[in-house]
Design the sequence.
């Protein structure tokens, strides 16, 4: 049975939401959460390739893929951030940085420039960081009090996403402004 690219994208969304919820629960749920994140990432990676291979790519499919990607990004970061290992304030900065990064990449295209995928916190980099630091959270479940924050691998992930996301967003603004001169 051949699945349509939109079906694969939707599967990625459902798996990611379930994984985010499992991460939020923490403890023994981290292992299935991480397995789900790997599967969701895999489905996200192949939906576009399936569309190209079967000559099904379209502006509608590209739009659906981007919408689902943003929901997946938000769900995963919020699930991690509100888990026993995260921090709500840092989560706000992480989500806003990632959303701005994605928005500014497509906004460049909307005003006639090329879509901007460049920067240190692109989607693939984010997913790899989530998987690697999620695995570290399983291996190193201890926390380290540091001032007002209790450091965990998941909190380190959120801090990296926040700083990297905003740095990438600023870089994309600067690059677009240079091209618009």
Sequence:
């Amino acid at each position: 049975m051949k699945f349509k690219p939109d079906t694969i994208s939707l599967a990625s969304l459902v798996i990611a939401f379930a994984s985010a919820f499992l991460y939020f629960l923490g403890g023994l749920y981290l292992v299935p959460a991480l397995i789900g994140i790997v599967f969701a990432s895999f489905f996200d990676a192949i939906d576009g390739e399936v569309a190209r291979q079967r000559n099904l790519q379209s502006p509608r499919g590209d739009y659906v893929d981007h919408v689902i990607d943003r929901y997946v990004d938000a769900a995963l970061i919020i699930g991690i951030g509100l888990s026993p290992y995260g921090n709500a304030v840092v989560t706000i900065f992480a989500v806003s940085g990632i959303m701005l990064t994605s928005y500014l990449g497509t906004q460049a295209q909307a005003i006639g420039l090329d879509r901007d995928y460049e920067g240190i916190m692109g989607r693939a980099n984010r997913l790899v960081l989530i998987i690697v630091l999620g695995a570290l959270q399983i291996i190193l479940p201890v926390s380290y009090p540091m001032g007002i924050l209790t450091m965990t691998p998941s909190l380190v992930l959120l801090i990296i996403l926040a700083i990297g996301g905003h740095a990438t967003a600023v870089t994309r603004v600067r690059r677009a402004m240079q091209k618009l001169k």
